[in-house]
Structures are given as C-alpha cells and as structure tokens.
Amino acid sequence: MKIFTQPQELQAFALAARRAGKRIALVPTMGFLHDGHASLIDIARRRGDEVIVSIFVNPTQFGPTEDLDQYPRDFEHDCALCEAHGATVIFAPQPESMYASDRSVWVDESALSKVLCGQSRPIHFRGVLTVVAKLFNLAQPDVAVFGRKDAQQAILIRRMVRDLNFPVEIVLGELIRDRDGVALSSRNRYLSADERTRARAISQAVLKAQRELDGAPLRDVAGVVAEVAERIAAAGGRIDYVEARDAETLEPPSAQTTELLLAVAAFFGATRLIDNCFVKLEK
Ligand code: AMP
C-alpha cells in the first residue's frame, strides 16, 4: 500500500494507472476510520484495480465555531484498516498542500445545499463539493464511493457530477450502524456514556419511521415525522431538524415523489449527530 501526502504525487500516480488501463476507485474520508468507512472500501475493492482512500480533515467544510480542531485522528489505525480492506493507496495531504493561501475558486451549489444540514451549516457543502472536485481531479477515479450516512452530501455529489460532467460513477454504500443501532460516526467519540445511551433514541425513531413509512401513502408522512422529533426530544436530544424530503430533489415530498428521504440532525450534549433512512412510498 502506497502513502502519498503531496497532491501532485497522487495525480501523477493516477494518470499513469489510467494510461496502464487500470480502473481507479476512490473513497474520500476524513479519517478516524470505522466499519462504515470499511464497507465503502470493500465496495471500492470490488470495483477498482487501484483503491485510493483519501484521509483529509478538510478545513473548508467546517464553520468557524465547529469542531475542526478537536476532530479525532488516528493515522496508524486508519492505515491498518485500509490495508486490511485492500486499499492500494492512501492519500493523506496537509491543508497547506491542498489549498493555496489565495484560493478563490469554489464549487457552490445553489439549491439542494440550502436545506437540511445547509441551514445550520451554511458553508459546509461548498467546502465538501470543492474538496471532492479536487480529489476527482487528483485521483482520476472511474468510480467514487460515498455512504448513505451523509445522504444529503451523496445527493449533492451526484448533482455536481451531473451538472459539471465529471466522468465518475458515484456508488452509494448503505448506512452502517453499531450494535446498539447508533449510526457509526467518527464524532460518536465525543459522546459521554450517558449521551451515547440517550442518543440511541435517534436510530430507534428513524428505524421505526422507516417501517411505518415503507409503502405508506404521502398523507402519513407528516405524522410520522412529528413522532420522530418527539421521541428524540423525549430522550433529551436538541433537534436541529427532522424532515422528510423527496430523495432526488430534496424538495418537500409531493405526489411525484417515489422515494423519500427522512433525515435527522440532533444534538446530544455538544455533539451533533445525523441519521436518516430512505423509503419508497405507496405507488
Ligand atoms: P467522513 O469520514 O465522516 O467524512 O465520511 C467519509 C465517507 O464515509 C462518507 O461518504 C460518509 O458518508 C461515509 N460514512 C461515514 N459513516 C458511515 C456509516 N456509518 N455508514 C456508511 N458510510 C459512512
């Protein structure tokens, strides 16, 4: 397994691999890897000859009051996990080598990025889309794998690929949960034991809603959404949002909606957690 820290090293490697006829699969991450990330590397392994995992805590997607400085890191553990799951390259750059101090070009999306997480994290998706576009140019992937844990991010990346004609196939991996149902997240590390126990209310409410909404008529959605919010609040969670949206357009669901995204963001203590499910409504 190769480890690159310089963007130009990765790009030279990727261009040579493409010229040699190899398929490249990319898995972008911020490190502190867990089984959710591992499941994406497993998908990439099946799809690419070269499996590039990027590990980069991208400063431009953090707001000024967010957790950039505390974000957990464990590069040795990450390398071991990548190797065990068949990654062939780790790309772990420093922010200074990714961003010129006078950078002035961004990938900004003007519709889907304004709702859900975009409401409370106004610059987040601009940072995400910009760094993913840069990673696509550096890693030259045929396919890139993202998790459904960050559903809005995945939908936005698909939109960027469509609107800017990136020659990259986007594959989505399922949301992977811990044994107690809580969605695996590097940020779970911030939770106290008590918060962690109470945070189970999020996944319990989401999974119950998923069962109730599967094949249900549109008119049932509002009541189920309200119940999810009540259950999380009853466990002491401070709700950022609980919303059902059309899974493709992120508009409020309508008669045209075939697939629904139920998305949640809530704080337990100072930690903001997200969770979601996708459901097909009644035809
Ligand atoms: P992150 O390191 O949190 O930026 O996430 C990197 C990638 O891993 C993103 O595509 C996430 O959606 C994905 N990911 C994170 N947690 C999970 C999870 N529990 N299940 C599936 N994918 C995940």
The gist of it:
The protein has 283 residues and is of the alpha/beta class.
CATH architecture assignment name of the largest domain = 3-Layer(aba) Sandwich
Provide the succession of SSEs: EHEHEHEHHHEHEHHEEE
Query: Helical stretch count?
Result: 9
CATH structural class of the largest domain: Alpha Beta
Shape: globular
Which residues form runs of ≥5 with pLDDT under 50? none
Pathway: Cofactor biosynthesis; (R)-pantothenate biosynthesis; (R)-pantothenate from (R)-pantoate and beta-alanine: step 1/1
Family: Belongs to the pantothenate synthetase family.
Subcellular location: Cytoplasm
EC number: 6.3.2.1
Keywords, please?
2 domains, binds adenosine monophosphate, 283 residues, 9 helices, alpha/beta, Rossmann fold, six-stranded parallel sheet, Pantoate--beta-alanine Ligase, Chain: A,domain 2
Describe the structure.
- The chain is α/β, with parallel strands linked by helices and 283 residues long.
- It has 2 domains: 2-173, Rossmann fold (3-Layer(aba) Sandwich); 188-280, 2-Layer Sandwich (Pantoate--beta-alanine Ligase, Chain: A,domain 2), CATH 3.30.1300.10.
- Helix content is 39%, strand content 20%.
- The chain is built from 9 helices and 9 strands.
- The chain has helices spanning 7-19, 35-47, 75-84, 95-98, 117-120, 124-139, 151-164, 193-213, 221-234, and strands spanning 2-4, 24-29, 50-55, 89-91, 143-147, 169-173, 238-246, 259-268, 271-280.
- The strands form 2 sheets. It has a 6-stranded parallel beta sheet with strand order 1-4-3-2-5-6, with helices on both faces.
- Strand 3, helix 3 and strand 4 (89-91) form a beta-alpha-beta unit.
- Helix 6 (124-139) crosses helix 7 and helix 8 runs antiparallel to helix 9.
- The radius of gyration is 19 Å and the shape is globular.
- The mean pLDDT is 98.
- Residues 29-30, 36-37, 39-40, 146-147, 149-150, 173, 175-176, 183-186 line the site of adenosine monophosphate.
- Its EC number is 6.3.2.1.
- Belongs to the pantothenate synthetase family.
- It is found in: Cytoplasm.
- This is pantoate--beta-alanine ligase (AMP-forming).
- Keywords: ATP-binding, Cytoplasm, Ligase, Nucleotide-binding, Pantothenate biosynthesis.
